[in-house]
Write the structure tokens for this entry.
Amino acid sequence: MESYFSRKFKEKSIHELELIVANKDDYQADAVCAAEQLLKAHCDIKNKPNFSELEQIHNKKIPSNSSGISQSLDPKPFLKTFSYREIITIIALSLLFHSLLEVIGIYSNDPLFIFKNTLNTWKIVLLLSIFLLNHIVYRLEHNRSNNFIGRLIIDLIFLFFLIIIKIGFTFLIDSSYRISIKGNGLMFFIIIFGLVFLFTALELIVAFLKFSLKKIRCQIF
């Protein structure tokens, strides 16, 4: 695994490697070890101070990242690695969520359907599950956790595709369907604002959950 990270980090700049070492809690142990070895190699080549001194400097944290809040609200780490992978993942999870909702809707009238009396509750549970799965997949793809602002951007893109998929599916079922917000445009924007506020509130909960998991060394997103 370490050799994988060594190859992956080989093209990174010294500054990027320093950021990984300085924020080692956000990365896998093998990734941090690979970054340390590459930094040490750079130091040996350029005859810089020994690595123990360099590590002491990094342990003090880079000033711009000294505040956990400012680091969480910095969009640069997310935007720097943002690519088609995130879009594909979001579309796939949006389709999965919509498909499961349709399955639940089809069988909701079945007398033997176990979710009949708690249908709305299960819809909320399903949404939260997909919502968290999105963050877990991001960590698996990037080998690091996304910060608060990055997760919020992902959530808003996720919300956008959920709406688009819902509209597209409705149009396929009923070709006479037309989008109109002229009559109830205010309500439409209130709903969108409410959903954005809801996702922001959920991200605050996720941030607390992430902090708690980090304390017990069981971080999964």
In short: The first helix runs from residue 2 to 9. Confidence is low (pLDDT under 50) at residues 61-66. The chain is about 70% helix and 0% strand.
